[in-house]
Fold:
Amino acid sequence: MFQLFPAERSFSHKDDTRERLERRLGRLHARQRLGIETDHEAQVFGQGLNFFHLENLLASHKFIERVLRLSGLYWRGRQNASQIQVRQNAIVSRRIPRSFDGFKILQLSDLHADMSEKAMSRLMGLLPGIQYDLCVLTGDYRGKTFGSIDPALAGVARLREALNAPIFGVLGNHDSIRMVPDLEKMGIRMLLNESTAIEHGRQRIYLAGIDDAHFYRVDNIEKAAESIPHEEFSILLSHTPEIYRQAAHAGFDLLLSGHTHGGQICLPGGIPITLDSVLPRAFGSGAWKYGTMSGYTSAGAGSSVVPVRFNCPPEITIHCLHLVGQGRSSSRGSIRAVPDIEREEHP
Structure:
């Protein structure tokens, strides 16, 4: 049976953490992820879907900041980066169960909590006024791709106090697998090539999540989807939208992702200079479709490399499910994750 890491346990010892991760994820996944992190987490060239990883080249961070300061745009960009907007997105489908008509999902992505303090303060002020039935976090809790995980975890812990359960999450390319025990102790259920059923009004939808597919490439959509009935409405959480083809062919109805920051530094009109992704630019931010699958790429709440934004405001998103032909209805009530498809703990 699925089991979160209990709050009373300590995971400070490196070997103890590995042992518990092996029990939680299975020996192969845990050792593979830890090994790849050790070998590649700060790598600038090669590894992952992109050849060049700007976020790992620390000299570039200073160069970009210096150019912005000299141009007089730096402080304006810092101010822009804290102005989080609340966006609304409608998901319309004939496959949505009747009791989920009007069901609201709050998506937070790319928090980079340890380097986006002003944005996180703004977010803490926004959350109490937002109603939702389910919260999902689509990765990148840490600012850097290597180094201490503690500041990012502290930032997420403060944010967690303002969030309503149930909460599910996946890891991003900035995140270490070592963060999982602490995130789950906070009550954030991480989906690492796993799935669960969400029950509401005696009907169900299915929620799956994969490990990072952009840099570490330890995603396994087949494993995540294997227990989901084909006829049921299903949602995939992935930090990056780059796996949109695989997700659609696996039968998912909706893909929620982030990673791109919408470009973060964009030309007038919101035209991104780079998305740091291998995908059509139309999928770089906002709502899109691929075949019969709907998708949404969040521009993210935080910032990476340099804490600035231009022509691309940070966001959190409320996705509202609508059954075709049905009027809007309130989804208030009991929401729970049911354990029937949750895999047993590995020996």
Summary: The longest strand covers residues 85-93. The CA atoms of residues 139 and 172 lie 4 Å apart.
